[in-house]
């Protein structure tokens, strides 16, 4: 698993890496996947994240938490696909 994560980190675009690092620092996820789905221009992302910080929160509140962490970045994006879960 660690090798797969390390290999994926090496293939991140700069914007994917920025998003990944912000979410990891703030939400301490057990699982996270960040993908630029805009064709590489950094304007649309798909994020799949599992975090204990979401425990007891509705999906709307989970999404608001992610949006707060990424609020400065989201302003530049055209879209975001977000999937959140707690474990």
From TrEMBL:
Domain of life: Eukaryota
Protein name per the record: KLTH0D00968p
Cellular compartments per GO CC: mitochondrial matrix
Taxonomy of the source species: Eukaryota, Fungi, Dikarya, Ascomycota, Saccharomycotina
InterPro entries per record: BolA, BolA-like_sf, Mt_Fe-S_assembly_factor
Family per similarity comment: Belongs to the BolA/IbaG family.
